[in-house]
Design brief:
Blueprint lengths: L6 E5 L6 H14 L4 E6 L12 H6 L3 E3 L16 H7 L4 E6 L3 H4 L6 H7 L2 E7 L9 H15 L5 E4 L9 H18 L3 E7 H4 L7 E4 L5 H4 L1
Parallel strand pairs: 1-4, 1-5, 2-3, 2-4, 5-6, 6-7, 7-8
Helix pairs in contact: 6-7
Length: 222
């Protein structure tokens, strides 16, 4: 994979796995010796949050910035002022977990001008073609356009994260890769890489491939 951008944003529909990817990406950057901050902008989904991995991230020396009520069912949690520092402080790498639909992406619009001005970002659409609302490349393209319009930042690449949770097989991932290539043809964006749970990744002979560790959901931690 190419040199990472200063700001990496992960966005996709519910269940795409973007939060898992954001956490793994942040830890990967830290292992490369970079200063890293991860920001949770997913104000829509209270069930799987970057905040849930805060202890792991902080143990790895990664700062976590998240809404005040990231682990609650409050409809519109307050976005902390520190989020402006995430995009304005160019001395560290920033990873951002964006909401799962156009409503969730609205929060991104507040910070879009800073990100676009610097122009050192990767806006990644996380595709999981096993989810009900993104079963086809055409479905995924519609979601992409909704998020772009709401967030004010264009996607720059696609990641194949097709999975069925614990039921995932290598064939699941490969079927998603084919659909990602179709989506790539529709929108003109490259497939940056495929990601898969470590045990599944070990059975795949594709490149580029990112093996990831699965993060726990907050109701599994309580």
């Amino acid at each position: 994979m190419s040199k990472p951008k200063r700001v990496t944003l992960f966005a996709g529909h519910y269940g795409s796995g973007k939060t898992n990817l954001a956490v793994n990406w942040a830890i990967g950057l830290k292992k490369q010796g970079k200063r890293v901050v991860i920001a949770d902008l997913d104000i829509v989904n209270p069930y799987f949050r970057t905040k849930d991995s805060a202890e792991l991230l902080e143990e790895n020396g990664i700062e976590v910035v998240s809404p005040e009520y990231a682990n609650s069912n409050v409809d519109l949690p307050a976005l902390p002022a520190e989020l402006y520092g995430v995009v304005q402080n160019r001395q560290r790498y920033a990873v951002m977990d964006i909401g799962g639909d156009d409503r969730g992406a609205v929060a991104l619009g507040r910070y879009a001008p800073y990100i676009l001005e610097e122009n050192d970002f990767e806006m990644i659409f996380v595709a999981n073609f096993m989810r009900p609302l993104t079963l086809t490349p055409a479905d995924a393209l519609e979601v992409m356009r909704e998020i772009e319009q709401a967030g004010g930042i264009p996607f720059t690449s696609i990641v194949n994260n097709t999975n069925l949770g614990p039921l995932t097989e290598p064939e699941t991932v490969l079927s998603g890769l084919e659909k990602c290539r179709e989506l790539s043809a529709l929108c003109g964006l490259p497939v940056l890489f495929t990601s898969a749970r470590r045990d599944i990744a070990s059975k795949l002979d594709i490149s580029p491939l990112l093996a990831i560790d699965i993060q726990r959901k907050y109701y599994e931690i309580l």
